[in-house]
Amino acid sequence: MSEFAQRPVTAVLGPTNTGKTHLAIERLCGHSSGMIGFPLRLLAREVYERVVAIKGAGRVALITGEEKIVPPDARWFLCTAESMPLERELGFVAIDEAQLGADPERGHVFTDRLLRARGRDETMILGSDALRPMLKALVPEAEIIGRPRFSTLSYAGARKLSRLPRRSAIVAFSAEEVYAVAEAIRRLRGGAAVVMGALSPRTRNAQVAMFQAGEVDYLVATDAIGMGLNMDVAHVAFASMTKFDGHRQRRLTVAEMAQIAGRAGRHQRDGTFGALHEEGPAAFRPEEVLAIEAHEIPRLEHLYWRDGAPDLASIDALIESLEARPPAGVLRAAPQAIDLAVLKRLAEEDWVRVRVRSPAMVARLWAACSLPDFRKLGADPHARFVGRVFRHLSEGRGHVPHEWFAEEIARLDHLNGDVETIAGRIAAARSWAYIAHRADWLADPAYWAERTRAVETRLSDTLHDRLTQRFVDRRTTVLLRQIGADAGALPVTVDPDGAVSVEDQPIGRLEGFRFVVAPDARAADKRMLLSAAEKRLGRELQRRAEALAAATDDAFALQAVPGGAPAIGWHGAPVAMLGPGKRIGAPQLRLDRALDTLAAPARSAITVRLRTWLAAMLKRHTPLFEALAAILSDPEATPAERSIAAALDDGAGFVARDMVADAVAQLDAAGRRRLRRAGVTFGAIDLFDARLLKPAAARWRLALLAARESGRDDPGDAIAPAGATVLPGDHPAARPGHGFRRFGDQAVRIDMVERLALALHGARDGRQPFAADLALATSIGLTPPTIARLLTTLGFRPVPVATGAGEAPPAQQWRWQGRQRPRATSVAPRPGNAFAALADLAPVPARVPAHRRKRQHD
Fold first, then answer.
1. For residues 618-628, average pLDDT
2. Whose CA is closest to 596, among 528, 508, 514?
3. How far is 655 from 826, CA to CA, in rounded Å?
4. Contact by Cβ (8 Å): 310, 322
5. Considering the entire predicted model, what is its pTM?
6. What is the pLDDT, as a whole number, of residue 419?
7. Are 824 and 843 in contact (CB under 8 A)?
8. DSSP characters over 678-692
9. pLDDT band at 856 (very low <50, low <70, confident <90, very high)
């Protein structure tokens, strides 16, 4: 207990906005010397600047873990609670937010200051009225003064982010949640300032300055704003009601809720508080609302305690005193903090015990273990870092090597990266700032303190810029301030070319019925403006719907969608998609989602118009599929007809003759005529509809294939160049099923294969050798190896010819031998075909009789 323990002690208790801190500053400045301990370095910095304005920079000190400004003639000290120099004799001493003695993590520090920090002439304890019974038990000599709140604090209910009033602070309880809320505020309202305890004072002040100056109307913060930071906040909204307290995720206490909600209102202006959710765990309970409005905070029943002046005789004595139980009463032993956890881990190291043999070295070890875990790494990683620091502090001259210090600072002195990266560098820099401000830890602490301050300043300015870039859209903020918060009131205009603007600010284009964000901005950043555009585009969309329903055929076009189902475009914009139907020639038609905003009658009229157009296009370009459907549904059709029709339908108009050889053999004359009238050509190698080889029909055929497969096997690149009869063997159209037959390094269009086959069969005389007329093959660009492979595939074999000495070689002779049908199992049915699973069970077909082979080319 201090020798000044019997001096007057005054406790000023009450809710937020009672002027407690202002009173303490007045009392501080009224004494010849003094000190105030604050819960946050941000608050200490704020009050330091206020006192400097009164007393001058040369007589005011700021002491925090990472920042020490102590002029030689300093007489007034603004500190964090942990950094208060209790050994100094000062006229006035105050401790702010003393109710934090009930905090499991830092409570023992505030309890120690409550018990031991005394001024020579006056001591003042500031805090919540919940502290009253603790003061009566622990400081019975204290005079307790209650102060009422200057303004009224009332509950305003739950409101969504989009409906929060201006000058609102939204409170979240993790960095991730703060960033998510700030992103949402940017999209909805143009931007927000961000305040977190982990920010450097410079970054925090720059962010608050934006809010105070009205550049943004919203502030997103952690519960750091609950500790006396003075800002012009009218409403406080809770994004959630739970926080991680270092050990578990728990619901906020009523005292914590009241502390944060009390930031609303300033001096004589009333304030409101609420939540973002009406129900559930993130909503206020009725009893909590009543308690906060009436400032009836549950009284504290205990404070956490740890020996503030532990025994430094040895490591074991230090640990024992830090783990000592408090005397019976309202004090409870503090949970193990990270400094004690680090100390106990290092105490297990033999090298540590060897070096720590005196009270001075025990004190030095304890000072190293008190280095805060700014990076939130946890006990084990932080213990390794502290161990390395102490190793240097306990050898040689007891200084951290400047080479290591310089290397680490240089590694942090980079300005690239996003918000999280820069914030991480600042957190790391705080550890080195803490080291630099220990006068006996470095050979030249003043130099390194300045270096770390310069690095932190640069990083802080960069972080402010990154936060502003990420969470503030100044254009949107200005627009909202001009026209109010109702997004539907934004004056949206649509130019004839589809450009959409708000207040002459281009925000995107209307392509068909789909609004596309401007390319110079992310869609997420423009969500509020997009919402406004959608609300105001109803008349334009209705006009376009009427024009689409009355459009002529030339306004529509088939559109390929890479990796997806084909679309129907209207003036270049997709308005519907084709999907799988009952058969390939009857695809489903689904309107594009962009048309969902239209009324049901308009959508119905558009659907009718598109179906009419689609039916006309299919009838014009792919009439085969309608004819095949008629055969398949005709009860009079023979099994052979239906088998061939089904195979052609499955192959989208093409099928290898070997696959249906038995059915072709069983066709009667009437069936053959019916299929030919439908458009089927019975080729030597393939059955096909030659009309599907035309460019326009080929595009429709491939679109129907893509629709049937729902885009899983996009064949859109398998269209051959217009008029092409021969392609390289690796062209996409050379794949089976796309109208070309591959022979080695070349692929030939199947109708040209049939023409060559007819010419060859017309020139032969039974099985007699003959000289084939290959002028057609040569004229279309077939190479000799391709011609040889083609002839062999068609059933022709070269005839060896003897050549006499000195004689010119005669023309190559060929003989018809008939095509050999491959085993049925050598042809794999299309995946999904009903017979695919039976492919391996199919019997080997009987060999075609010799008297029927010559007719196969028919």
1. 93
2. 514
3. 14
4. yes
5. 0.58
6. 86
7. yes
8. HT-EE-SSEEE-GGG
9. very low
